[in-house]
Design brief:
The complex is a heterodimer of chains A (321) and B (908). Chain A is α/β, with parallel strands linked by helices and 321 residues long. Chain B is built from 33 helices and 36 strands. Classes of the chains: A alpha/beta (321), B alpha/beta (908).
Chain lengths: 321, 908
């Protein structure tokens, strides 16, 4: 199959492109920097540039749309340009080119309004209640993608949740760096149950979606390992796998939420593209439960996570050894 | 103050209310044609292409309206749509109530006012409107189309009265909390007395919404629901009839409505069709005495008590489901009506009729001249020893005395007497005349005992001082009989009319009435670890069958000497002809049984068998060092040690074997509803342990017990289908049993009984135990918890007990609870550990322990352990202090894992 992958310079995008090449697909990538994926044809450009997009999707039989602006802060216009405008440009171009399949990568934050999530499914995106520009614009982008769904243009939305693993600079490396510096805090009791997703499983879920979209489309699916863990335990295990000690710094929830920026400071975010976000509302995320019902996801994708969290930790430890 | 007239109205949009139920109906009452607002599901049914196969006529009370029946309306329509019997629901708003017509009034309602609409008028109103509506469907009231009434509050009396006067077309009647009759010798309930006090009446009922608001507070109502109930009563003008109703309460014989109420009461007593009473005992107005009165008028009535419900019982609980189940049991679906058999009747129950013919008291009667020892009681000081001849004479005298006092067969006698000769005498006296012993053990605590005894509603109490003191303090029902004479002052204080001692001197005058095998013999209360304690009914046949099991399975026979340290079995000696010895111990504190006490009991009764609980044996083993040579020799003569009440781990079995070196040690499994179901001995426990099976192995079904398994689905429900043999092996399910010695039913819990006995496989009566687990390849039963504690993960249902057994083997763990967090079918599996007795501190467990437990759990069934928490306290049941309250721990874990504080209260 001829497949176009946008945002293939990041960890997830490049891994997906590589996996598709390995499976024998003919892969074109679209991003501003070279993807570095052997066997894929790079189109260098932005999803906000209609010409580049048109060029990248023409002749494709499926598009996997991972390109996004992922950041904690920044000009709302930039978020809108990439996450809303870029998605609209891509959807229009793909439809015009007669591409029959779109796998759109979104985020669980599009439906998150600040409450605990305890075994819920994928609720509809609610950009009007979103926390932060990323979630707001990704929510609007998801609506555009789903709104274009039809039998001739089949759209399936995946929302990977808190991805981690070797090569992940967003969550994994930050935890390890902070823990090594002795400044990795655990919020509250650290017992809030959260779902995460090991990177290899994320890649395989997206690859599975390229086939699954033929039978099920017009739907959003949260993708996780299906193994909720206490946030404190999870961060500790990542830190230990990365060679740091078990984090001992504990801070109460209330001051973290009140200050609002405690987590930002600790996590010292910079500008990044193409990756799941670590935004300021993470303070809330890290102190309330966030885990999902995975039955529908696994049924639709015909996929189950191959690497358990425990196996993933061993892989991570080997990576940092 | 003037009150204007206005026609009936259609209600506004209200929660749970379907506007297509609303109709305005004109009906000709004796004082003219009036407009009623009526909830009628006929249009909805016909729109769905369904033609009624039955009609339910529902009548609300004061100050509700047909909104009270919205859930019944929805449930009947849904049942009809799903292929069940098509019941039409007709629920009028009484005139001047709800959205029905309002009349003009010149003055406030008062008891003697001419403007007040009387009970008699309201019966005519109901008759007029339902007669009009029934006529719309041809054949209503025929055998193929039964008519059933249901009512609440004043609507209860009125609907029952109408049913009684129209029994030619009415097939059954149901009432929720109501009252037919105000006994002359008791004051009317305080809340009503306040309202009725002359000038208060208009203010409380009409000018303000006080009466309305107070009523709305007598149930579990949301603010939206309260608002909906209040919708037709927003202004004083709309509330005139609330005052009317209160003014029309016949407080005494001079009240204008009193004669009509008396007539209605008499008519209801003549109603002989099936009836169902649904009761919320927390009602401050409709008290237990009104239920007692109703039951005396409708002796055929089934009763279901919702122990935690108040006046608005249908708001608190699943009344629609109960009503539909009951109607189904009476009438079935129209198609299957003739095919379906009643599952609750004891008469057509093969298990009951197959029971041994020997009466419970037959052996006692046969040994009336035997001077051998029947019973030794070490609870008395000095120990009291009585012969069979003495026991026969005493029980026969007491039986005669009870009859003389006015005890009738079927009367209930609450036994507030600890095990020993006195209890044995009282119990067998009752069994001889068919009086029913009510036994609620002190482990329930005063509140639990009050609830239990109130629900059983005994006519009599036989008690020692501690029991009589509680009875007095908590106002338990029943005329009092003390054990020993109390003297004039205390007799007056405790209202004791006589004593067992006095009764035991009664001459043997009367030929004693012989109870039938199917008559109730005893009501035993459950421990109440999963909700209010339930009364479990045993017939004479059930008790005979239980005695027969002890003979058949454990070789307890005539002449056997047994030490009875476990209450239920302590009472069976005279039924078997065995010599029973009550050791010196406190029943509620089994840990007080010492090795010396048990040895002395063995010596006194020349006993070869010992029955006690694991907690008692633990203390016996711990105090075995005190035994002298003679006592040790006595213990060595014991052939059978039986431990009941909770499973016995191997180490305790081994410790018991040290004390009783020549005994075989058995630990049967059972429950209040079926005391002996399976059995395992010491070798069996060792063998089962070696298999590494999950849960607690309780052995195999004993002779006479049929065991089946109802598999548990992904949502945690047990299937209707029952499996036996190979098909039942190795899968998680609820255990379902059938035997002649299991319960005949639950007391005053119609639906609970029907649910628990809903299976009909092989034409037997079965009992759903609510215990879950699996049966292994060798046919052994393994317990893994209670049905409501099943964890429903995305990978399938998990029995918590099995995994707990595994977790408890870890050196860092003292005890554990396995619970599920999150929505059914996708729950996260969580282990909660007890901090006490360990080095663990409350909160998230250490990483290494978590990793170890996760690996172990993944190893046995591929289950993913989400988290391990350490709880600051560990709630267990009151009675055994061994059953872990998983529900409370689950609620705590749920909060903590959502980000809540660790230091929250766990005990509710």
């Amino acid at each position: 199959m001829r497949i176009t992958v946008t945002g293939a310079s990041g960890l997830l995008g490049s891994s997906v492109a590589r996996a598709l090449v390995t499976s024998g697909h003919e892969v074109t990538t679209l991003q501003r920097r070279p993807s570095g994926v052997d066997g894929a044809a790079d189109v260098l450009g932005s999803v906000t540039d209609a010409k580049s997009v048109e060029h990248a999707v023409t002749g494709a039989e499926a598009v996997v749309h991972l390109a996004a602006k992922v950041s904690m802060m920044g000009d709302p216009k930039e978020f809108e340009a990439v996450n809303i405008g870029g998605t609209r440009t891509l959807v229009d171009a793909a439809r015009t080119a007669g591409v029959p399949r779109l796998v759109h990568i979104s985020s669980p934050s599009v439906a998150h309004t600040g409450d605990s999530i305890i075994g819920d499914g994928a609720e509809a995106a609610t950009p009007e209640f979103a926390r932060g520009e990323y979630a707001r614009t990704k929510g609007a982008g998801e609506r555009i993608a789903l709104g274009a769904d039809s039998p001739d243009f089949r759209v399936l939305v995946l929302r990977p949740h808190l991805m981690w693993g070797p090569g992940d600079t967003q969550l994994t490396e930050r935890i390890i760096d902070r823990a090594r510096a002795g400044r990795m805090p655990v919020l509250g009791s650290g017992a809030a149950l959260v779902d995460t997703l090991f990177v290899d499983n994320a890649v395989e879920a997206i690859v599975a979606a390229v086939s699954a979209v033929d039978t099920t489309h017009g739907e959003s699916l949260v993708v996780t390992n299906g193994q909720p863990r206490a946030i404190g335990e999870l961060m500790s295990r990542i830190a230990i796998a990365g060679g740091a000690g078990e984090p001992k710094l504990r801070i109460p929830v209330a001051p973290a939420l009140a200050a609002g920026s405690v987590v930002e400071k600790v996590w010292a975010l910079g500008e990044h593209d193409d990756e799941p976000p670590l935004t300021r509302f993470l303070a809330e995320q890290l102190s309330t439960a966030h885990w999902f019902d995975q039955r529908r996801t696994q049924e639709v994708l015909g996929w189950t996570p191959r690497v358990s969290i425990e196996e993933g930790m061993e892989i991570l430890a080997a990576h940092y050894a | 103050m003037k009150f204007p007239a206005r026609p009936a109205q259609i209600p506004p949009q209200l929660p749970e209310w379907d506007p297509s139920w609303s109709r305005i109906v004109e009906a000709a009452t004796p004082d003219g044609t009036h407009e009623f607002h009526v909830l009628d599901t006929l249009p909805v049914l016909r729109a769905a292409g369904l033609e009624p196969e039955g009609t339910i006529l529902a009548l609300h009370g004061n100050p509700t309206w047909s909104y009270l029946w919205r859930r019944l309306a929805r449930a009947t329509v849904e049942t009809a749509r799903a292929g069940g019997r098509v019941w039409r629901l007709i629920a009028p708003d009484q005139l001047e109530m709800g959205f029905s017509e309002r009349f003009a009034h010149e003055a406030m309602p008062t008891p003697k006012s001419d403007e007040v609409r009387r009970i008699a008028d309201r019966l005519n109103d109901f008759d007029a409107v339902v007669t009009t509506l029934i006529a719309e469907v041809a054949g209503s009231g025929s055998a193929a189309h039964p008519i059933v009434t249901i009512g609440h509050d004043w609507g209860g009396v009125l609907s029952l009265g109408w049913a009684a006067r129209n029994s030619d077309i009415v097939s059954a009647a149901i009432s929720l909390n109501t009252a037919v009759h105000q006994p002359e010798d008791t004051p009317i309930p305080a809340p009503l007395r306040a309202t009725l006090a002359g000038p208060m009446l208009p203010t409380a009922t009409v000018l303000t919404d006080w009466f309305l608001r107070v009523t709305m507070s007598l149930g579990d109502l949301s603010a939206e629901t309260k608002s909906a109930f209040s919708a037709p009563y927003r202004s004083a003008a709309d509330r005139w009839a609330i005052g009317n109703f209160v003014a029309d309460i016949p407080v005494d014989a001079n009240h204008p409505s009193d004669p009509e109420l008396q007539r209605i009461g008499k008519d209801i007593a003549a109603f002989d069709k099936p009836a169902l009473l649904v009761w919320g005992p927390k009602d401050p107005v409709f008290l237990e005495r009104y239920l007692r009165d109703l039951r005396s008028r409708l002796p055929q009535a089934d009763l279901h008590r919702f122990e935690t419900a108040s006046h608005l019982v249908s708001e608190d609980h699943a009344v629609p489901g109960l009503v539909l189940d009951w109607l189904d049991a009476q009438f079935g679906t129209a198609a299957a009506a003739s095919a379906k058999e009643s599952t609750t009747g004891a008469d057509d129950d093969p298990a009951a009729t197959a029971a041994p013919a020997r009466a419970v008291t037959a052996i006692l009667d046969a040994r009336r001249d035997d001077e051998a020892i029947a019973s030794v009681d070490f609870a008395q000081n000095p120990a009291q020893q009585i012969s069979w001849r003495h026991l026969w004479h005493v029980t026969t005298s007491i039986a005669n005395g009870l009859l003389g006092l006015g005890v009738k067969p079927g009367d209930r006698v609450s036994m507030l007497v600890p095990p020993g000769n006195n209890l044995t005498a009282a119990l067998y006296a009752c069994l001889k005349i068919g009086a029913v012993a009510v036994v609620a053990d002190a482990g329930l605590g005063p509140k639990g005992m009050t609830r239990a005894i109130t629900s059983a509603d005994p006519q009599w109490i036989i008690g020692e001082l501690p029991g009589l003191t509680l009875a007095r303090a908590f106002g338990w029902p029943g005329r009092r009989i003390s054990v020993t004479p109390l003297g004039p002052v205390r007799s007056r204080l405790f209202k004791a009319e006589t004593s067992l001692t006095a009764l035991s001197r009664t001459e043997h005058r009367a030929e004693l009435p012989a109870p039938a095998a199917g008559d109730d013999a005893a009501i035993l209360f459950t421990s109440g670890s999963t909700g209010p304690a339930k009364g479990v009914r045993y017939t004479h046949a059930n008790i005979s069958a239980l005695a027969a099991v002890l003979t058949r399975v454990f070789d307890v026979r005539e002449g056997t000497g047994l030490v009875a340290g476990f209450p239920p079995f302590a009472l069976l000696g005279p039924a078997i002809g065995a010599t029973s010895v009550t050791p010196d111990m406190s029943v509620t504190k089994p840990k007080t049984l010492t090795a010396s006490a048990i040895a002395d009991a063995i010596i006194a009764g020349r006993a070869t068998m010992v029955f006690a609980s694991p907690a008692a044996y633990r203390n016996v083993a711990a105090t075995a060092g005190q035994l002298d040579a003679q006592q040790r020799a006595a213990c060595a003569r014991v052939e059978l040690v039986l431990s009941a009440g909770a499973p016995v781990p191997l180490e305790l079995m081994d410790a018991i074997a040290e004390v009783f070196p020549n005994a075989s040690i058995h630990s049967p499994y059972g429950m209040t509803e079926g005391l002996l179901l399976t059995d395992i001995d010491r070798a069996g426990v060792a063998e089962a342990d070696a298999t590494g099976g999950l849960g607690v192995c309780v052995g195999r079904p004993i002779d006479g017990v049929e065991l089946a398994l109802a598999p548990i689905d992904d949502a945690g429900n047990s299937a209707e289908e029952l499996l036996q043999g190979e098909a039942s092996r190795g899968r998680l399910g609820e255990f379902v049993v059938s035997a002649a010695h299991i319960k005949s039913g639950y007391d005053n819990l119609w639906r609970t009984t029907a649910d628990s006995a809903r299976d009909g496989m092989h034409g037997l009566t079965w009992h759903r135990t609510n215990d879950i687990g699996h049966i292994d390849d060798a046919g052994r039963v393994w317990l893994e918890g209670r049905l409501q504690h099943v964890v429903t993960t995305a990978r399938g249902p998990v029995g918590p007990g099995g995994l707990e057994a595994l977790v408890d083997t870890d050196a860092q763990v003292s005890r554990s609870a396995v619970v599920g967090i999150g929505p059914v079918g996708t729950q996260a599996l969580v282990v909660v550990l007890d901090a006490e007795g360990t080095a663990l501190s409350p909160g998230v467990a250490p990483l290494d322990l978590t990793a170890r437990l996760r690996e172990q759990i993944a190893g046995v069934g591929g289950h993913d352990l989400a988290a391990v928490l350490v709880a600051p306290e560990f709630p267990t049941d009151i009675r055994h202090n061994s059953k872990i309250d998983r529900s409370r721990l689950a609620a705590w874990a749920d909060r903590v894992l959502a980000g809540g504080p660790v230091r929250g209260r766990i005990r509710g």
